[in-house]
Write a structure and sequence with these properties.
Elements lengths: L1 H5 L1 H27 L2 H18 L7 E3 L4 H8 L3 H11 L2 E4 L2 E4 L2 H8 L15
Antiparallel strand pairs: 1-3, 2-3
Protein name: HTH crp-type domain-containing protein
GO molecular function: DNA binding
Organism: Aureimonas glaciei
Length: 127
Amino acid sequence: METFSKTPRLATAVLWAASPDEAMLVEHLVGIGRRDAKKRTAHFLLELGARLKLVGLGSTQGYACPLSQYLLADALGLSAVHVNRVLREDGLATFQNGQVEIHDLDGLMRLADFDKSYLDHDGPLLR
């Protein structure tokens, strides 16, 4: 604490660096508690894609995803059968053979009510 009181800019940078993690945690809790299966799945696929895109491993068209449908379902609190049905219903995205393909990014974002601003890691103090 003494270091932070002597260097308030460092304290601000540390708090700022921790805030995206808190924002992601809140977003996940909201996802499990308030989103239906379709919105939850869409949001997860979009968030994973956005995070992979930040590190150069994804694009707006899709990305490699080593998760099985069972692991994806478990992460979302759903059954694998339900996840498969949800993905096929609207044709917005597909998840097969370790690959997520996004067929309608705008439609998927509308469905999930996705706002990627909570994933922003480019803060002014870390530039």
